[in-house]
User: Fold this.
Amino acid sequence: KAGVTQTPRYLIKTRGQQVTLSCSPISGHRSVSWYQQTPGQGLQFLFEYFSETQRNKGNFPGRFSGRQFSNSRSEMNVSTLELGDSALYLCASSLQGVGLRYGYTFGSGTRLTVV
Amino acid sequence: DQQVKQNSPSLSVQEGRISILNCDYTNSMFDYFLWYKKYPAEGPTFLISISSIKDKNEDGRFTVFLNKSAKHLSLHIVPSQPGDSAVYFCAASDRTDKLIFGTGTRLQVFP
Assistant:
């Protein structure tokens, strides 16, 4: 079956712009989480959605937002981009209630570079 | 405040030997722990998990040990293979779908 699909794979944006990243979870998975990976901070949790509702949120500024659609696809948006937002953004999905035991499946990520 | 710590940034092991990757945590509310492996330009791949009601879980060549009193867990890979060379992350959860990751340990398995 198809894995977690993230688009685009690479993106270059200018400071001050905004960006939208997309994630299509594995079919049947309704929980979608987003993470930011940077060399200095490792993987940091952004937010998690289930059935179009944000259930958990990490410690990121309000410039980072997300949403989930009725088909479980999710998008995250970063407004007023800063150089420090350059990172690999990863999306993960799981079936309800079993992610901790059987793991969350990650996509290959979107590499965002802010110049 | 790093709640999950992997103090060894790198580890080098000979093929066939045991690889031991360590992870420490500070939050006593964590009650589920996961290990992931990551190759460059790919997303992390789930390896194994353990709940706090257990002290050991194994799956093939991978075994995770949990010492709750020491707030320490370790991943053992036996025998190590060259294909195991990757960055390994431990992660913890307080029963929500929010994972707190360590900063990773780069494992290199040489022939």
